[in-house]
Amino acid sequence: QVQLVESGGGLVQAGGSLRLSCAASGSIFSITFMGWYRQARGNERELVAGITSGSSTNYADPVKGRFTISRDNAKNTVYLQMNSLKPEDTAVYYCKMRLSRDPRDWVSQYWGQGTQVTVSS
Length: 121
What we know:
- This protein has no helices and eleven strands.
- It has strands at residues 3-7, 10-13, 18-25, 30-39, 46-52, 57-59, 67-72, 77-82, 91-100, 108-111, 115-120.
- The N and C termini lie far apart (41 Å).
């Protein structure tokens, strides 16, 4: 069984920083995509940042220059460094990975449990 476990969320003041982590455990052969999404109360879930197996990255416009996505392939872990946080960053943040469990498997999609990030003014 593959599981994604997130950590690092919490309550911070505007201008502060947080570092989110998402580690995949279980039988994993390869990971083709890692990404972070967020969903604020009453809003749709949106892509925040993504990174491919080829190290190509993309960011949503509101977080460009403030957030950085990175990965550790040996640990099957993706990180999101969030600096200069603003109250509008408040949301539940979800990790997503596309991966295969062995060379014979097609790629499947997995989600983390979500972690709350709250930024006070």
